[in-house]
Specification:
This protein is of the alpha/beta class. Helix content is about 50%, strand content about 10%. The chain has helices at about 15-30, 35-40, 45-55, 60-70, 75-80, 95-100, 120-130, 140-150, 155, 170-175, 180-195, 245-260, 265-275; strands at about 105-110, 160-170, 200-205, 215-220, 225-230, 235-240. A hairpin with a 4-residue loop joins strand 5 (about 225-230) and strand 6 (about 235-240). Helix 2 (about 35-40) crosses helix 3 and helix 11 packs antiparallel against helix 13.
């Protein structure tokens, strides 16, 4: 998706992920753990662990390291994860960023093209995929919806991660998918904005100055306090590690936070769009 997480035109195979999951499950059982008992030992939820074992999620580096230590896996998991390079339902160019997302302590997103994937409803996402050109098959659409749903679990599974979203007002005025889809989408964004770790700001249509005219951007801080950025185009994406470039994007994002409506005013605007009294 693009949260721009746009999915690739072909669903990615899951054989490698399933094989890794099977190896992990084998070591877990060998060590006498259930998913529920291993989860707190490695610092992840049982649901997250289950997703890895079922081949539905790419294993982050820290996750692999924690499992290696807890299960005494002889380095086998590290060797296995090195063979993984593709994630089903995610664009190839997005996969490295998706892995970093799973460990981020801060994630900032500015979007002017579509509501970011982490905030989308299933109906909104389905409409986006249904309008993709060249057209996607039903199985491809379902694979990408599943991948998007898995990514969205980050918002609930990582309550200590600080999320910031700056969204252009016209994304909600466009009416993508029709009136009901838009109303449901606004309800979803309003609900997420109530969470303590999620900030949503709306950039008004009429704005005399705007620091984001070069397009969408994402920024994240890792648990090691390193910063990365990501920029996406029509059929490509760029992971940015150059500190100078990342610093420039941080400067622009900080300025946009002052140019967008406050969180309170943003919520009020969305409520007016929704017809709240």
């Amino acid at each position: 998706m693009s949260s721009s997480t746009q999915g690739s035109n072909e669903p990615e195979p899951t054989d490698g992920l399933k094989a890794f999951g099977a190896v992990l499950k084998s070591f877990r059982k060998r060590a006498g753990y259930t998913q529920e008992s291993l989860a707190p030992e490695i610092g992840y939820s049982a649901h997250f662990l289950a997703s890895i074992e079922q081949g539905r999620r790419f294993p982050p580096t820290r996750f692999v390291d924690q499992c290696e230590a807890a299960l005494d896996a002889f380095g086998t998991l590290r060797l296995a994860v090195n063979q993984l390079s593709r994630q089903r339902g995610l664009a190839k160019w997005f996969q490295r960023w998706a892995v970093l997302e799973q460990e981020a302590v801060a994630l900032y997103t500015y979007e002017c093209r579509l509501v970011p994937g982490l905030l989308q409803t299933e109906a909104y996402a389905r409409n986006l995929f249904a309008n993709r050109l060249p057209p996607l098959g039903d199985e491809q659409i379902e694979a990408q919806l599943e991948a998007r749903g898995e990514r969205q679990l980050l918002l609930v599974e990582r309550p200590n991660t600080a999320y910031s979203f700056i969204l252009e007002e016209h994304l909600f005025l466009r009416g993508m998918g029709g009136h009901e889809v838009t109303m449901e989408l606004i309800d979803q964004v309003l609900g997420l904005a109530e969470r303590r770790n999620i900030e949503v700001q709306i950039m008004p249509v009429v704005r005399a100055s705007h620091a984001g005219m070069d397009g969408p951007m994402r920024l994240l801080e890792t648990s090691e306090h390193k910063w990365f950025a990501y920029s996406e185009g029509q059929e490509s994406g760029q992971l940015i590690a150059d500190p100078k470039v990342v610093s420039t994007l941080q400067m622009r994002y900080a300025r946009m936070r002052t140019q967008a409506l406050s969180m309170e005013d943003s919520v009020s605007l969305l409520e007016r769009m929704r017809g709240a009294r």
